[in-house]
Amino acid sequence: YKDFSKVLEAVAAGKEIDDELDMSEQSIIDEAIKAITNAVNALQLKDADYSAVEEAIEEAEALVKENYVDFTKVEAAINAVVEGLDITKQGEVDAYAKAIKDAIAELVLKGADYSEVDEALDLVEGLDKDLFKDFSKVEEAVEAVVRGLDITKQAEVDAMADAILAAVQGLEVKPTEPQPPVEPDQPEPDQ
After folding, report:
1. CB-based contact 170:137 (threshold 8 Å)
2. Around Cβ 100, how many Cβ atoms within 10 Å?
3. Which of 34, 44, 96, 99 is spaced 20 to 30 Å from 15 by Cα?
4. pTM listed for this prediction
5. Tens-place pLDDT, residues 63-88
């Protein structure tokens, strides 16, 4: 209970009543009983402890919901919370916190966007490596591509695309070897 002191005061006052009262003094006892009853009836239950719910909501609000495939279960769990329950409903309040935490645990991050990497790979695929002095840096950049990263690793994926493009830009074309001049056709001497 929020404040039990009024009940204790009424009980203490009732205990001070003389045990030797006669029937004519029944009203004194009735008043003591009434004071105890009123104090008990005025008791208010403590509020339920929502601290775990508040922590779970803060954890959810700290997430970037656009990074997840589906954030609706987390939102639904938060929206299901009923505020203002008393201590007798603490189990329900604890269940709200658990539902939010469970929904957070089930979240699945979106995959990283590999479109720039794919464009860079398409560019490389269209090149004839035999035309360049050294194609190894391009091949290393292509081999360094790691698939399956999630959206929180987008910067790494973008760096992969940048590395491929930088390697392509650093390519040097092999010099072409001069061809011997072609002599014009001369008439054959007469025999």
Report:
1. yes
2. 25
3. 44
4. 0.63
5. 999 999 999 999 999 999 999 999 99
Cα–Cα distance between 91 and 93 in angstroms, integer?
Answer: 5
> Judging by beta carbons within 10 Å of its beta carbon (0-12, 13-18, 19+), is residue 132 exposed, middle or buried?
middle
Which two tokens mark 142? 């292509």
Distances (CA, A) of 157 to 18, 67, 116, 118, 148: 87, 15, 8, 11, 10
* CA–CA gap between residue 47 and residue 84 (Å, rounded): 7
Amino acid at 97: A
Task: Show the tokens assigned to 2.
Answer: 């929020």
Looking at the DSSP assignment, which residues form a beta bridge with residue 68? 109
**Nearest CA-CA partner of 29 in 37, 41, 21, 39:** 21
The structure tokens listed for 62 are 């700290």
Q: Using an 8 Å Cβ cutoff, are 1 and 45 in contact? A: yes
